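so my prof wants the structure for this chain in the tokens format not the other one, which i didnt know existed until like an hour ago. anyway here's the sequence
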Amino acid sequence: MSSEIHIQPYEVLNRFFEDKLADESLYRSASYSFLKVFQHALTYEQAGTHNRIIRNYLHWPLAAQRAFLQVKSVFRKKNNPITLREFVFIDPARLVCDASQRWHSIYMERAASLFEENHKSLINRKKEPRLSCQVSLDAIPRSFGTPDAAELRMLSEVDSLAKKTLKSQAWNDLQKKHILSALHVFFDDFRFYYGLFRNQPVRSVVFISHYHNEGLIAALKTLGIRSVELQHGLISKNDLYYRYSETFRTAVKNAFFPDCICVYGSYWKQLLSAGCEFSNDTIIVAGDYQWHDELPAFTSNPQKTILICAQKNMDDEYIAYAHRLRPFMELHQDWKWIIKMHPLEKKKSRYRELEKIGFEIIDQEKPLDLLLRETSIQISIYSTTFFDALGYDITNFSLQQYGIYKDYAAHMIEERVAYALLIDEDPVAKHLQVKGQSALRSRHEVYGSLDEDALRRAIDVSN
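here's what i got, hopefully its the right format
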């Protein structure tokens, strides 16, 4: 089995899904559509990330699986009971530091602040000492008790689909291994969240990213708990998990999508409305609920600064581009050249090496808002930071025809959030050429003013 990874452009993967997943019966159980679970499996198979194939027992007879779960429950480690309140916020622990060196949750702090302390529970997805919470999910052992009727019904749904997959001629052997692994992960997540929220007074759970959260959403649906997604970044017309085409209209009805999604502005609602996974009344324009430092809105004092906002898992592309900029750095020595790493970047040492050739490397120690106020030029490929920069006195440049995400980059130009820049173009000269033009989209379309009432009603439908 080859371990070489081949990341595909999203437009290529979407065409692949349109072909392989057009027949809903391939991933439909008695009650549910496992569309997104199959997407995960096929994405890994296409990319060659075969370490996602894990040992599982879905090829066993259903009775044997049930017996195995019963036996495992006898030896389980008993978890300390966790008491949750009505409104639960699952924080991805994405942080920003303010001018006083205090850390804040980017996505959940403002939303959670709308509810009284004795009515909400804050959960971090991972351990993060800089962010207070009741518990972090990675600190809760995945040890399960005796499965109840609801868990056994879900196991039956997953098992029937696994057996169908093994018999199907639609998949090759490698794809079947990935699919069974993805189904196993789904069921394990379902049991974890079902156990966490069962017998609790929880009414709504707020989180980001409905994709790779199918087990969570399935558990909430089973328990009758409302699921609310907060937009957490860029949504593109070529997204794998948003804007599903008419091919999937029937499939998405019974797939694991949240009850509603809150978006930043009317632009995003219009974009999502072109798909079939969310109805108009389940797309809530809540405005900009991200945490921002309390500074005068969009006051800018742009310096001769170029800010390159790198993206996660794209260190090869951004580091190679940084080296291509060296002639322009020599030409414009009165300009400062900054690279801001993605908050979840794993290869930070690679970026730090660029300090030797004149780049300033920034991690999370300085908020993006402050950087944007001091920047004249921002360069990226398809980053959310293009949208963040709207309203400031900044020239956004999207690198075109570069890397595997060319379709996303082209979308940035098409959607009027950035100007096109080729990798061998002088960004300073191009900035002076386009400066003063008003061709980019207005900020209010993208980030409306925070609508606290709309956000509160999305979370608490009884309000």
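also thought this was worth mentioning. The mean pLDDT is 92.
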